[in-house]
Amino acid sequence: MVNILCFGDSIVFGECDQNYGGWVDRLKKGYIEQYADSLKQEVFLYNLGIGGETTDGLVKRFSVELKARKIGKQKTLVIFAYGANDIVVHKNKNIVPANYFIRNLTDAISTAKLEDCKVLILSLLPISNTIEGKVNQHDKLRYDLDIQQYNLILEKISVETESEFLNLYSPFNQNDKESLLSGDGVHPNSKGHALVSQLVREKLIQMLPAYH
What we know:
Rossmann fold; SGNH/GDSL hydrolase family protein; SGNH_hydro_sf; five-stranded parallel beta sheet; alpha/beta; two-stranded antiparallel sheet; 7 strands; phosphatidylcholine lysophospholipase activity; SGNH_hydro; 7 helices
């Protein structure tokens, strides 16, 4: 049995993908079922995304959520997809400043590693040029420079914790990001969710053979 736990915000939850419920559900309906058949064992994928969540919320619930879904020596892979809400600017600073962002994620990863879990960290997605440095329809202000900074932090954390890292930022920019983002300029649309699902699928193909 293999468990895949996806932690994150509304992008993980699947917002703005009316067709298939987001990249996690797309992954579940496609690759995960095929993978389970090839392994001849059960694969469970859990969508643990919560709209609006930051890494502050993650550390409050991660240990409980993990223990509820990992029994004994079950093989478990944890995916972390955070930052889109952490970088929101409020009173001239990020809601979760970089040093707290690092602490939160490192703590969660340490907990996962203690339970012998594999870890995959996803980068932040780019935002639309139409909301760069502007308050969007949800009254949130984001800057692309913050996204780039936090992505560098995520990549560094992955190296320091011996976790895997997947860059989603560059593929979105290389494939006309505006066509992959929803009207709010933050969440991927159905096409964007499909791309994220494809990229995560390719990464899992590299990571999961160790569980064969």
